[in-house]
């Protein structure tokens, strides 16, 4: 059975085509700059040359059409007919309190996702466009949605409630939901397997450090607490998102410089984080390069990013009364030798001891970077959200 996995963003759409018999990836790619005149489709078919196409892709339906066209293309394609695709699985960022598992898409499910547009304005409307684009382009194909929030539905009320009037939770469902759940779930399971231990016996802190950044405390195999909140803005400093700040800052700025709600949202989501402090980039590779060349703003951005991560890791060790395993994952977590070193070198209080050689070894494999004497196992586990989505889709459709 072949499953197409889609992660639709507001102006991009990433895809992977899986053969579920052996879980191999037949092709993957992305459409960027949807809605612009020069949109870019990058397609990587397994065992063939990567292709890039520039054309006008004004909406998600056109983007999906282009993806299907290239998947069945004579030269660059990997299947002979679209009928070979038996199911589509989508990433959906916000599932609110309605979903603690992946589900098959129905009218009711779509209604629920729509109700959550307000809570994830950058993500959920784009996912819905992806689902509708598949309905138009591949009618009758079963679709499954896999939620970032689902894994965190096990959090206790003491973790998910905010200390504000309870009516706000009852009436508007204002609470912590948490995100990147598929990733935290996947890497914690892989970590236990890597160590040959029972997941249920471990206290794990997982750090998903990509464009979005979140940490999760995992106890008895379940999410116990996580740094993102009602929206993916809370918690750690990110590429362009501020993370935690005094909530009083928001009304204060709105009064002082006469900003509208949408402008404040945009400032905190798109113009803050590494971008704001470095003054020119949200890309960790550039931050590190500039820092090494003596750029003081890049250094400050790096220091703040690292410091905030370290504070969260420490607080989750306290939250679980211990930490057996610390996991780094996602673009920055898997690749930044410097960030991992700086964090671990200043967590010696917990008995963490990093092995510099292991940390510096470049690899895309799961690996241990702590020394033999370290009291906490420190691992780098490459995440694979797409594989989890493909597996859930296969399970529900099969
Ligand atoms: N070698 C590297 N060193 C440091 N950071 C890296 C490296 N490779 C990728 N990154 C960073 O990873 C981030 C993107 O992470 P990723 O998990 O792909 O994000 P997302 O899935 O949220 O788009 C970028 O900030 C990028 O700079
Ligand atoms: C939820 C979230 O922050 O997702 P991403 O990291 O893909 O932006
Ligand atoms: Mg990601």
UniProtKB/TrEMBL annotation:
GO molecular function annotations of the record: acetate kinase activity; ATP binding; magnesium ion binding
SUPFAM superfamilies tied to this protein: Actin-like ATPase domain
Active site: 148 (proton donor/acceptor)
Keywords recorded for this protein, A-Z: ATP-binding, Cytoplasm, Kinase, Magnesium, Metal-binding, Nucleotide-binding, Transferase
Binding locations of substrate: 91
Binding-site positions, ATP: 14, 208-212, 283-285, 331-335
GO biological process entries: acetate metabolic process; acetyl-CoA biosynthetic process
Subcellular localization, as worded in the UniProt entry: Cytoplasm
Sites marked Transition state stabilizer: 180, 241
Complexes and interactors: Homodimer.
Protein name: Acetate kinase
């Amino acid at each position: 059975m072949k499953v197409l996995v889609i992660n639709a963003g507001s102006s991009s759409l990433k895809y992977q085509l899986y053969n579920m018999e052996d879980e191999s990836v037949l092709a993957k790619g992305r459409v960027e700059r949807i809605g612009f005149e020069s949109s870019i489709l990058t397609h990587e078919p397994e065992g063939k040359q990567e292709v890039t196409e520039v054309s006008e892709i004004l909406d998600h339906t056109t983007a999906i059409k282009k993806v299907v066209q290239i998947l069945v293309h004579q030269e660059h394609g990997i299947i002979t007919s679209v009928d070979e695709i038996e199911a589509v699985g989508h990433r959906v960022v916000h599932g609110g309190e309605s979903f603690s598992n992946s589900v098959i898409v129905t009218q009711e499910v779509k209604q629920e996702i729509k109700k959550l547009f307000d809570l994830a304005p950058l993500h959920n409307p784009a996912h819905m466009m992806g689902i509708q684009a598949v309905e138009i382009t591949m009618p009758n194909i079963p679709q499954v949605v896999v939620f970032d929030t689902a894994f965190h539905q096990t959090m206790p009320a003491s973790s998910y409630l905010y200390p504000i009037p309870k009516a706000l939770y009852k009436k508007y469902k204002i609470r912590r939901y948490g995100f990147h759940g598929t990733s935290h779930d996947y890497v914690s399971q892989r970590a236990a397997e890597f160590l040959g231990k029972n997941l249920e016996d471990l206290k794990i802190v997982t750090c998903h450090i990509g464009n979005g950044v979140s940490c999760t405390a995992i106890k008895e195999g379940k999410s116990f607490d996580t740094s993102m909140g009602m929206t993916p803005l809370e918690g750690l400093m990110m590429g362009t998102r501020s993370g935690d700040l005094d909530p009083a800052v928001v009304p204060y700025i709105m009064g002082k410089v006469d900003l509208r709600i949408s402008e404040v949202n945009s400032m905190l989501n798109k113009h803050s984080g590494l971008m704001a402090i470095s003054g020119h980039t949200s890309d960790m590779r550039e931050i590190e390069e500039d820092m090494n060349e003596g750029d003081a703003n890049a250094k400050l951005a790096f220091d703040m990013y690292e410091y905030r991560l370290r504070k969260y890791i420490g607080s989750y060790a306290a939250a679980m009364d211990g930490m057996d395993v610390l996991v780094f994952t996602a673009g920055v977590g898997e690749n930044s030798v410097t960030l991992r070193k700086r964090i671990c070198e200043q967590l010696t209080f917990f008995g963490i001891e990093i092995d510099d050689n292991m940390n510096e070894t470049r690899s895309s494999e799961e690996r241990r970077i702590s020394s033999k004497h370290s009291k906490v196992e420190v691992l780098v586990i490459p995440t694979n959200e797409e594989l989890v989505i493909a597996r859930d889709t296969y399970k529900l459709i099969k």
